[in-house]
Amino acid sequence: MVIDSLIEKIIEKQNPTCVGLDTAPEYLPEHIRCHWAVRCHLADDIFEFNERIIESIYDIVPAVKVQVAYYEALGVKGMECFEKTCAYAKKHGLFVIADCKRSDIGATAEQYAKAYFGAEEGRFGRYIDLLTVNGYLGSDGIAPFVNSAKENDKGLFVLVKTSNPSSGELQNLKLSDGRTVYECMGDTVEKWGEGACGKYGYSRVGAVVGATYPEEAKILRKRMPHSFFLIPGYGAQGANAEMLKHCFQKGGMGGIVNSSRGILCAYQKSDKWQYYDNRAALCARDAALKMKEDLLSVLGEIHA
Amino acid sequence: MVIDSLIEKIIEKQNPTCVGLDTAPEYLPEHIRCHWAVRCHLADDIFEFNERIIESIYDIVPAVKVQVAYYEALGVKGMECFEKTCAYAKKHGLFVIADCKRSDIGATAEQYAKAYFGAEEGRFGRYIDLLTVNGYLGSDGIAPFVNSAKENDKGLFVLVKTSNPSSGELQNLKLSDGRTVYECMGDTVEKWGEGACGKYGYSRVGAVVGATYPEEAKILRKRMPHSFFLIPGYGAQGANAEMLKHCFQKGGMGGIVNSSRGILCAYQKSDKWQYYDNRAALCARDAALKMKEDLLSVLGEIHA
Fold first, then answer.
1. Which of A47, A217, B25, B157 would bridge A246 by S-S if both were Cys, CB 3.0 to 4.6 A apart?
2. What is the domain count for chain A?
């Protein structure tokens, strides 16, 4: 079961983090950007950069999170790069989280589930383990993802409390029953995950909970004991290890923390390896190791 | 301004509808499906079907709505077909609504805005006029779409009250201030549209309001006088013309109604043109004309 395997990989590597491949063109270092002159497409450069990052971190992190928006922005060629990136990460034994935040009515959600969970030739799902989705449409928009996740041994993360500054505008509104919208969404996610738990007590239906909101995270962690959290917001978005410890349960279990810019752009803030062609990747590894140490210093040893 | 032009096209054609190109493989008629043997990809057949539908309706409807999930399900080839379909519709003078329901935090929403509104070589945005988005993340997730829409003369439809059976689970919950979640979302959308109104009084920031919920539509229509509505749910999903009249204002203004299966699959329920190779397209035109008559019988002549 995918969440069990992810947990085992996190324990094995003692690293509850994933590297976010939100690869914006402006993140590419000169030595890759200069290929533009002889290459046919920017997407090829993005892929080369992703390859180098994956090669430099695959032995120390359990997963990557690929943010599809950066690839969609480059059109069809970008989507080809998205697929190649997912495939390359998978080939290196990494869990692949597709950060797509998809949502739609039942019949259409079924198509998205095929796209990102389907194993058939041509589908992105061949290289993807976990997908982020948006629950604004209610349970008939989520059921196709849950059903397909069970059939294909995949998992999903539903947006509950997002990491962005204005997430509270809707998510923190009080309902007439006393709960906030995010608490209500959290309760619903916990319910969607019923009957889909693995041996460590976490279900296939997880939640996105931003590290930037420790108070909300504390509340959600209590309300959602069976939900595995995907935790954005560390690093460039402003959250530190102390803030996100509330997202975890005993033994540092129950979550995986993402960092994107903090890893991909580490080379821009470093003086190391100045004369190495591959310094962006070396700095990324360095930053990923620092992030791991930082989290472990707060969470302690990760164990089941 | 895009909404003004759309309104003028609706008046010119006396037709406040759009055809939904949610082209599932099982919608394809035999004479297109039999190409599978000699073609390299199902996406080519989907495109051929879309071409025929567009050719058969472009003179009588103002717009198409292309549901990207059906194309994403076919991977990179599917996204190529999505782009070609949008381009072909645009070439025929149709407004193109990309039904993508995208949402993310600010920096990522910027990438989506580039993808679907950007005019640069390679971007889907070259062929798209309007985009559906999801507002669960709050205003910093929507601002990039609004800004880009202003720059590139595009428009967006934010999910407010969706047409699916379980949409009320979250959207109809009561807030402590007495509003429902969908009313709150509606008020927010109206606010996001401030300063972006065209000469007919409608802003670039519209709303998705399902025809399947007439009571909610009535309430939203009053609260959102400046928001243009994209109205799904007619036909296969169960709403009729009488139910959706509440989505409109004086003169039949303020909305565009989508039908997908009801048009694309009309040939499956018809005996007409049995020996014509192009009967699916002929039946689609027939169904689109019937839908127009049905709506006009309730709305009367459309005028500014």
1. A217
2. 1
